Amino acid sequence: MTQPATAPVLFDRRLLALRQRRAAGAPETFLLERVAEDLGDRLAAVNRSFTAAADVWTPGAGLKPLLTDRMAQLVHLAAPDTADETLPLAPHSLDLALSALAFQFVNDLPGVLAQIRRALRPDGLLLAAMIGGDTLTELR
Fold this sequence. Notes:
The chain is of the alpha/beta class. The protein has a domain at 49-131: 3-Layer(aba) Sandwich (Rossmann fold). It has three helices and four strands; from the N terminus they run ααβββαβ. The chain has helices spanning 13-24, 30-44, 109-119, and strands spanning 53-56, 74-77, 94-100, 120-129. The longest helix has 15 residues, at 30-44. The termini are far apart.
């Protein structure tokens, strides 16, 4: 049996982008703010500064307004509107990669994580938060 050459398309990226743009007008950002606070706490436990960081596909304005005090440069990479999940990151170009509430919508999560690993320097750090299957069951 041969393996498929590409990952299956699980999420319609165009529809997801449309829904996120619609939701961006609402002021209810409590969940993203909570996740950013948690990432900030975890980042505070790391005793170093970061010179090159990327925010990978965090919705809205991303983490930049919330976590800029520890990083010299934080680039926000917007989520793609198409099925192409290629990250525009050069190898060994980052010492920190962050992502909040984005990876649960990735079609090829192992592929995206491999790209991030390639972009991180040998002592680089990835901090990510995603919604799991049993998250927010009270709201269902």
